[in-house]
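Here is one chain, start to finish.
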Amino acid sequence: MITLTDAAIARVRNLQSQRATTAPLRLGIKQGGCSGLSYLMDFVEQPEAGDNEYEQSGVKIVINDVNLPQLQGLELDYTEDLLGGGFRFRNPNASKSCSCGTSFATPKEVGTAVACS
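Its structure:
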């Protein structure tokens, strides 16, 4: 199960409104980042084969089967601070995280580290 905080739900809805879409939010991972794996987020018009669909407070989320083990139990939050706003990932599967908050590693998948920019 993936959980979105109230702040994350509000921000996703705001982004959907700005883009004039009701498309689901895809969460995923890719190789890279200073800890080896980085989070991906984007709106997708159509779910693909192998996607797992979740809905929370009217916000639809899709995650493919390949990324689900690394993202299972993830809590997505959104916060604003002096440097601006951003999504925060609280991933119980992460064994290592970067101070940037968007790069991580798991005990089974460490990825290939790349310096943060």
